[in-house]
Amino acid sequence: MPHTLFPACEVRFPEGLGSRRATFYLAAEEYVAQTLDTGSYLFSWIVPPTVVMGRNQLAHQEFDLDYCAAEGIDVVRRKSGGGAVFADDSNIMWSVVTGSGDVETLFRAYAQAVAASLSEIGVTAQATGRNDIVLQNGQKICGNAFYHLAGHNIVHGTMLYDTNLEAMQRALRPDPEKLKAKGVQSVRRRVGFIKDFFSGSIYDLRQQLTALLTDRCVLLSHNDIKAITHIEQSYREEAFLFGHIKSSDECLRTHIDGCGTIELRFLLRGSLVEDVNLSGDFFELRDAAAAFTKAFKGTPFTKEQLMARAKQYSLHETLRGLSQDTLLEWLASI
Question: Tens digit of pLDDT for each residue in 59-84?
Answer without folding.
Answer: 888 899 999 999 999 999 999 888 89
